[in-house]
UniProtKB/TrEMBL annotation:
The species this protein was found in: Spirosoma pollinicola
Signal peptide span: 1-25
Protein name per Swiss-Prot or TrEMBL: PKD domain-containing protein
Alphabetized SUPFAM superfamilies for the sequence: Fibronectin type III, PKD domain
InterPro entries documented for this protein: FN3_sf, Ig-like_fold, PKD_dom, PKD_dom_sf, T9SS_type_B
Domain of life of the native organism: Bacteria
UniProt domain PKD: residue ranges: 68-118
PROSITE patterns for this protein: PKD
Keyword field: Signal
Gene3D superfamilies: Immunoglobulins
Membrane spanning residue stretches: none
Length: 962
């Protein structure tokens, strides 16, 4: 409920007193544009511009306002003539309609605009106020044109956009917007618009517009002045005006369907603020209402006035099918008949004044969105005091009535048990309406909440039937002894592309428990696990709800079997005649298969069902009464793991094995046993599981705990416990069943522990310049120590040694050695630099994690002389390193003269310069400079080279023959 007050329209003489004389060209006070799709085969719309003219100071201009230019948003325009002019408010204003039919070229979003010259003068928040009559009036409406919308009309606003407020009191306006299609509406503030020309198609905000709070006083609660609109209800409120005068403002109504914006309409409205001591009338609160279609609504509306003045009650809304000019619209223009009335509305009454809102609702008014009615109370004070009014919104939700008279009774069909539903004809539906049928197990009575459509939680849809259907036979997976609850709803067609669909209220519950006239299977247990001679015992009850006198005897059981947990190909395996004697052994059967149908309990589960026959008294023939729900044997599966075996089991049975304790049995001696119970497993929901790690937690029959070995096979079987959940069958107690026997061998993924590796490394600090002289091949000596742990495999067969030349390398397999070897010499190396790790390999071929990584680093060394004599005497003829260079990979050598000119450049694994230039010319005796870049065979692949910059003296004196 929303409750607010505004002051009423001023009388004629007050408006005259407030407004100065203006030119005859000024006359527009307010307006909006509405549209309606009028064709089912084309994109043709009826477009109406509704304008409110000042008939007092702008009558001459209003007389001449016979046509305006419509801009349709698709590039076309039309000159549209006035179709109607209705005077309101004592002929001080008029409602003017301009209507045109327009067809759009195709789907799209179009903005329709109309410009009117000009507004009336003295609008305070459009300064300069004295010249507001020079501002053009522009409004627009945007529509989404799409044939998929089927029908679409913009909302119409049934409360005129002309009001008056009082200084210091909260002012509110509600447009009483109504959308005939049932679309959702949302509201937001905007700014009054103008255009650049008299026939302009594009609007723009009036630059001089000022928010009304600029002229506000303190709100009624004492805070700052506010101006806002409720986005859901459309209540536009100014709390509170602070100055006498005329004001314009605008707001937008958005139209939404299925969460998609399909249009928006702008209303530009005007109010006049006065000052008086009259108090507003009061409307007693009216709660929102929800009714079934077909209900006659009689809602009293009571108003009082604090000053004791008489009161007039009036109403606005689409349910009245009356336009904002007070004139009745053609049948079906807003809503389908019958239309609402306000008895004693629009007349002056002594207070407390009472009017009665009455509306005979109908099925064609069902829709998802509620209907909204706005009631207005106007006081009638002594003249010349102006009247004040208050408004209150009243929302009415019309829902589809429930399906009545639903009943359920048991029946039978050629395919077995069934439930026949019946209900009275449903008359509150249009073409395309269907009835949806829902079912759930259980008959707990949870009445639907008032005015909540649809089915309560817990139900499942089982069928949809045409509207004129009154019966339905349910044959889908019905179980004897189970109670079933049914409800129906009507599903209405989506005639407006998403706005008016929905469902009705749910019917009352119809509940039925199927009688237990058939036997009930209580056991399917595997006695023997064999490939061709398996054995399963099947047990059942006698018909729990049947005595020998109910139907003619003799009677007969016919047992059928299907292969697999979910098998449906049932074949007969036994026929058992019975007279239903209490002590007869006729409710058990041991299935051993046959010569033509071997029972392979090793490979398969089996499923059983039982037919029950009685002797028809008329024909004397055996006649099937019913068939039990099928029940399967327990199927056990195994999954070997590392020194473990994981078991999983399931059964397809009409009772529940959930929430019970199941027993697990194990044999260490093969499928012939003996079997020991090793665990009691509390299961929750299938599939059930258990992992055997060799432990035995049930020791009453002996403790067989021992770690599982990959060298042994273990056999298992499971005993399940279950119980029927229906109250009629729980008395049968706990039902036990054994699975088949299945064997498995665990795997063993236990790996050895990684060894600890060591390396005889060079001690560079202890080396002399002569160390490693003339050594060109090196050896790295490695040794390792095995490690053990209870979690590691101690049975080691060999070791793998991995090597990488550089520290950054991924180490690759170097060699593999058998136990008991724990040493290895890595020979024929050009450098000792390199990294190693070792792994242990078990007898099962499983490799341990890598050991620690050990690395050896080279000890580089290179010394160059300062003089040499390249005179061919075989002594000191080349410039080369002094003795014992270590771990040199490459030398880049460059020679310069004293002026910096490069004379020689060479590169190689060794250095032996003969004193010649790069072109082969002998260099004369003298001093030369050089740079040697030495790359060593180190662990770091990118280790920086050693740079040696120095000088060398060449002597060429011939110490021999010369």
């Amino acid at each position: 409920m929303r409750f607010f007050y505004i002051s009423g329209l001023l009388s004629l003489f007050l408006i005259a007193a407030l407004l100065p004389n203006v030119s005859q060209a000024t006359h527009v006070r307010a307006g909006e544009i509405t549209t309606k799709l009028i064709s089912k085969t084309s994109l043709t719309y009826k477009i109406t511009f509704t304008a409110y003219f000042d008939e007092q100071k702008g009558k001459a201009a209003a007389d001449q306002a016979e046509n305006y230019t419509f801009c349709f948003g698709d590039g076309s325009t039309a000159d549209v003539r006035r179709s109607s002019r209705v005077y309101i408010n004592g002929r001080t204003s008029s409602v003017n309609s301009y209507t045109v039919i327009h067809t759009y070229p195709g789907p799209g979003t179009y903005t329709i605009g109309v410009t009117v010259p000009n507004r009336n003068a003295d609008t305070k928040n459009l300064p300069p106020a004295a010249n507001s009559d020079q501002i053009r009036f522009f409004v627009s409406t945007t529509i989404y044109v799409n044939a998929a919308l089927l029908t679409n009309s913009t909302p119409v606003m049934l409360n005129p956009p002309l009001d008056s407020g009082r200084v210091g009191q909260k002012f509110c306006h509600n447009p009483a917007a109504f959308d005939a299609d049932g679309d959702s509406l949302a509201y937001r503030l905007s700014v009054p618009k103008t255009s650049l020309t008299d026939n302009g198609c594009v609007g723009r905000d009036i630059p001089a517009y000022q928010d009304p709070t600029r002229f506000g006083s303190a709100s009624e609660t004492g805070g700052a002045s506010t101006f806002s609109i409720n986005p859901i209800t459309g209540d536009l409120c100014w709390d509170a005006p602070g100055e006498v005068g005329q004001f314009n403002f605008a707001f937008i109504i958005e139209e939404w369907r299925n969460g998609v914006l399909i249009g928006e309409i702008t209303r530009d409205m005007q109010i006049i603020v006065v000052d008086n001591k009259n108090q507003r009338p009061l409307i007693q609160p009216i709660p929102d209402l929800c009714v079934e279609a077909g209900t006659l609504i009689n809602q009293p509306v009571t108003a009082t006035d604090p000053d004791g003045n008489r009161v007039i009650i009036s109403g606005f809304g689409g349910v009245f099918n009356v336009g904002q000019d007070g004139v009745a619209l053609p049948a079906g223009e807003l809503i389908q008949p019958a239309y609402a009335r306000l008895v004693n509305g629009g007349i002056t009454q002594n207070q407390p004044a009472t009017a009665t809102f009455t509306w005979q609702t109908g099925c064609n008014q069902i829709r998802v969105s509620p209907y909204e009615v706005v009631f207005k109370a106007t006081d009638v004070p002594p003249k010349p005091t102006p009247a004040l009014v208050s408004f209150q919104s009243f929302r009415i939700q019309i829902v589809g009535p429930s399906v009545k008279g639903l009943t359920a009774r048991p029946t039978a069909t050629a395919n077995g048990r069934a439930i026949l539903l019946s209900w009275t004809p449903y008359t509150c539906g249009t073409a395309g309406t269907t009835l949806a049928i829902y079912r759930k197990e259980g008959c707990d009575v949870v009445p639907p909440r008032p005015c909540v459509t649809g089915i309560p939680a817990g139900y499942t849809l089982i069928a949809r039937v045409p509207l004129n259907t009154t019966t339905y036979t349910d044959t889908s997976a019905l179980k004897r002894g189970v109670s079933y609850s049914y409800r129906l709803v009507a599903v209405y067609p989506d005639v407006n592309g998403g706005a008016n669909g929905g469902v009705s209220l749910a019917s009352d519950q119809a509940c039925l428990v199927l009688p237990l006239l058939a036997p009930v299977i209580t056991q399917v247990t595997v006695d023997s696990t064999q490939t061709t001679t398996g054995q399963i015992t099947v047990r059942w009850t006698r018909p729990l709800g049947l005595t020998p006198g109910d139907l003619g005897g003799p009677y007969q059981y016919r047992l059928q079997r299907a292969e697999g947990l979910t098998g449906t190909t049932f074949v007969p395996i036994a026929t058992i005649n019975t007279v239903l004697a209490p002590n007869a052994a006729d409710t058990v059967y041991i299935d051993r298969g046959s010569s033509t149908s071997a029972l392979n309990t090793t490979a398969n589960a089996y499923r059983y069902r039982l037919e029950f026959y009685y002797t028809d008294a008329t024909s004397g023939q055996l006649t099937r009464l019913d068939v039990t729900d099928a029940a399967s044997s327990v199927r056990l599966a195994v999954a070997p793991a590392n020194r473990r075996v994981t078991l999983s089991w399931q059964a397809n049975v009409p009772w529940s094995n959930d929430g019970k304790v199941h027993d697990v049995y194990r044999s260490r001696s093969g499928p012939n046993g003996p079997f020991n119970k090793i665990c009691e497993v509390s299961v929750q929901a299938a599939p059930y599981s258990f992992t055997d790690d060799g432990s035995d937690t049930f020791t009453a029959d002996g403790n067989t705990s021992r770690v599982l070995s990959a060298d042994s096979s273990y056999c298992y079987r499971v005993m399940t416990r279950g119980q029927y959940t229906d109250a009629q069958l729980t008395k049968l107690g706990i039902l036990t069943n054994y699975s088949q026997i299945i064997c498995a061998t665990p795997t063993d993924t236990t790996r050895p522990c990684p060894p600890v590796l060591s390396l005889d490394s060079l001690d560079c600090a202890s080396l002399t310049p002569e160390s490693l002289c003339d050594v060109s091949s090196f050896t790295n000596q490695l040794s390792w120590t095995p490690t053990t742990s209870p979690s590691c495999d101690a049975n080691i067969a060999s070791y793998k040694l991995y090597y990488g030349r550089y520290r950054s390398d991924t180490l690759g397999l170097l060699t593999s050695v058998a136990v008991p070897t724990t040493r290895f010499d890595h020979t024929s190396l050009t450098t000792v630099a390199g990294c190693y790790y070792v792994t242990a390999v078990s007898q099962r071929g499983l490799e341990s994690a890598p050991s620690n990584t050990v690395c050896n680093e080279a000890c580089p060394s290179l010394v160059l002389p300062n003089v040499f004599t390249p005179n061919g005497d075989g002594k000191n003829d080349v410039f080369a390193p002094l003795k014992c260079p270590r771990f040199v990979e490459r030398i880049e050598f460059v020679v310069y003269n004293r002026w910096g000119a490069k004379l020689y450049e060479g590169s190689g694994p060794t250095l032996a310069w003969d004193g010649r230039s790069s072109d082969g010319a002998e260099l004369p005796t003298g001093l030369y400079y050089y740079q040697a870049t030495v790359h060593y065979a180190l662990l770091d692949r990118n280790a920086p080279p050693q740079i040696i910059k120095s000088w060398v003296q060449i002597f060429r004196e011939n110490t021999g023959s010369r």
